[in-house]
Amino acid sequence: MISNRVIQEMLETEMAYQNSLALFVDAGNEPFYAEGPEIFQRLTTAINKFAYLSDSLHYNASVEMTQELNPTDLSELRAKRMILIGDFFTEFKTYMSLYEEFLKTKYNAKLPSETLPFKQLDEFLKSKSPNNSDSILIQPLQRGPRYELLIKDVLKRDDELSVDAPNKLIPAAREQLELLLATTRNSLVEATKREETPGYRFGDISRGLLRRGSEILFPAKSSSPVPAPVAESAQASGYKFGDYTRSFGRRAISFWSAAPVEEISSPVLISSSYNPVNVIQIPSAEPPVRIPPALPPRDLSPENTVLNGTDDGNDENDTENSFTII
């Protein structure tokens, strides 16, 4: 048995991934599915292939983690694992285009007869899980970075072995692994270069997957965990994924970030009719606070003090207020 963090994390998430794929396969047995667009059948074929590869990889990795193996058997087991990963990325490249075509077909549909199969599919999936078709069908692409880590892990462990170690990779085997790793990287990078489609930008999610892969491999270099990417339903045509949330985040930060506040300490002459009131500190948008000159005696009673909010139409700068003395 071998203690391996990369394999253990893969095993922990693989079952949930397999359950999602099985749920989509179940949808294929529903009457509405057979009456849906032709792309439904191609998706079922692809998902069945991914389910088989996932099950085979899960079994392969489980054997390494749970059984005592001699060096020869361990090397053969890892070689089979790399073949499975190679098969996965062969399907991965084709599936990227298929998933993009699915989104175009789904969100460009206008007639009720065209949109109905997609609504029925989502209703079925949502009745069984929290995910719709977009979220489930992107999961094979989400496995890419994690499977890439398995290749890197084998190469890393081989580097740590002595030259005469019995399970040391022979040069030809290592060269094949390095070639597979390069192919894997090219497949993942290609996912970030897909052209924008109506209502959805393919690369937005894939870039998040690549960042997630780096986070899994180098957890110590991150101060906070990066949440796993979640596929969002595509919006109306022309919408660029993330536009609204980025704009809202900037406004929220601008509104709630308090500017430095300093007490005004210049002496102010107070008339005999002045009634003490609580000091109000007003945040300024242009720190440091300017110190006003001394004022002549005036009636500063609360009922004669009016707070006028300035509204210049720009809600990012609405942090300034002014006082008017009447």
TrEMBL record:
<dbReference type="GO" id="GO:0005085">
    <property type="term" value="F:guanyl-nucleotide exchange factor activity"/>
</dbReference>
<feature type="region of interest" description="Disordered">
    <location>
        <begin position="296"/>
        <end position="326"/>
    </location>
</feature>
<dbReference type="InterPro" id="IPR035899">
    <property type="entry name" value="DBL_dom_sf"/>
</dbReference>
<dbReference type="GO" id="GO:0005737">
    <property type="term" value="C:cytoplasm"/>
</dbReference>
<dbReference type="InterPro" id="IPR051092">
    <property type="entry name" value="FYVE_RhoGEF_PH"/>
</dbReference>
<feature type="domain" description="DH">
    <location>
        <begin position="2"/>
        <end position="187"/>
    </location>
</feature>
<dbReference type="InterPro" id="IPR000219">
    <property type="entry name" value="DH_dom"/>
</dbReference>
<protein>
    <submittedName>
        <fullName>RhoGEF domain</fullName>
    </submittedName>
</protein>
<dbReference type="Pfam" id="PF00621">
    <property type="entry name" value="RhoGEF"/>
</dbReference>
